[in-house]
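I would like you to sit down with the pair of lines that follows and say whether C-alpha cells and residues agree.
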Amino acid sequence: MAWIFLFLAGILEIGWAIGLKYTEGFTRLVPTVLTGAAMLASIVLLGVAVRTLPLGTAYAIWTGIGTVGTVILGIILFAEPATAVRIGCIALIIAGIAGLKLTA
C-alpha cells in the first residue's frame, strides 16, 4: 500500500509543478488554490508512505516521478524542447527509480 501512496504522491507532485505555471506568480485564484491543494496532498501521501518505506528511497522516487512527469508534460503542454539529450536524461532518471524500487 505504501508504494501506491508514494506513486500517488509523485503524480500530485507533477500536478503542482505544472500548476505553478498556471498560477502566473500566484495571481490567479483557482490555479493557486488547486496547486496548493496538490502540494499539501502530495506531502501528506509522501509522509504516509515513509512510515514503512525507507526515507531516502521514497524521497528519491517521489522526486523522480515528479521530475520525469513534469519534463514530459513541459514538452507536451509548453512546447519545451524534446532533444535527444533530454530524453536520455529522462531515461536515466527512470532507470534510477526502477533501481531504487528493486532494491527497497
